Amino acid sequence: MEFSQILVFLALMTACLTLLVWIFCLLGYFLWPSLLVEIFQRWNMYRAGFTPKTIDVGDFQFCYMERGLPSDTNQTIVLIHGFAASKDAWCYMSHALPKTEHIIALDLPGHGKSTRKHDGDHTIPTQVAKLHQFVHAIGLHQRKFHLAGISMGGHIVGVYASRHPSNLSSVIMMCPAGIDAPHLSEFLEDVLHKGERNYLIPETTEDFLTMWKKVVHRYIPLPYFAARLFTEVRKPFNEFYKKVLLDITHPDHRFLLQNVLEDITVPALVLWGENDKIIHVSSVNVMKEKLKNSQVHILDRCGHALSLERPWKTAKLMMEFISSCN
Questions:
Q1: What is its main location (predicted)?
Q2: First-to-last C-alpha distance (Å) of the chain
Q3: Could you give phi then psi for residue 139, rounded to 5 degrees?
């Protein structure tokens, strides 16, 4: 076969493969949105160097991802996502974290691929207990680690630090819930005072796009087809998320973090976006007053999604703080 014929053959093969990929994507878009999202998340995970893992405790399965291994020369950092998110939310920021560190990101109960029980208890104390169960299940309690969480995850890790300080080298809370902020956020104004639908549990693609605009400060364009995919994947679990939201805002636990701030004895880092529309940044004033050993940084040009909007700055502040704890 002549060289020109080989080139034509390769060009035809490339065109056919491209056509097949487009056909698969179109079919997936309309018929199997969850499959396309799963492929995207797996690609993100492997690109960030993580390996997906599971561990069973009784009838409950924890799903998590791990990068690196614990050793005498590195540190373990455990990452806890926020409400209605999953461990995959950390993939983007993880590129800014040193490859030398041992990093674990967990799917909270009912989120991501961890066991989902619609009639379960998802109050903050119960989620803290589940996190402690996971820590023991994979042997993390055998050496101290750094624990970081965002939003609902920030609430959980803060309460965990107040109850299990012997396990921790430090705790990092990013725009955590659980604080009675002096000022209402735009989200609470919209839902409580204006009677708008809770866009944190989107029912339509338009709801998802609204949520996207609210959680970030500098708008990051999101194609409509991508918003539709994520909406379709989340929608079957909306009733579950509504139950979780009711549990974590229960009057007995809604401001649990604020009530235990003075019990946090390990070094603490508080990070907040200056333009957070979901949880008002004025919460930092409450935290600074009650935390004994803390650093506070407010990131400019940033909303609620610190790990997405300012991943490099967030990672830099985290690692500087972690280094100062050694």
A1: membrane
A2: 65
A3: 80, 15
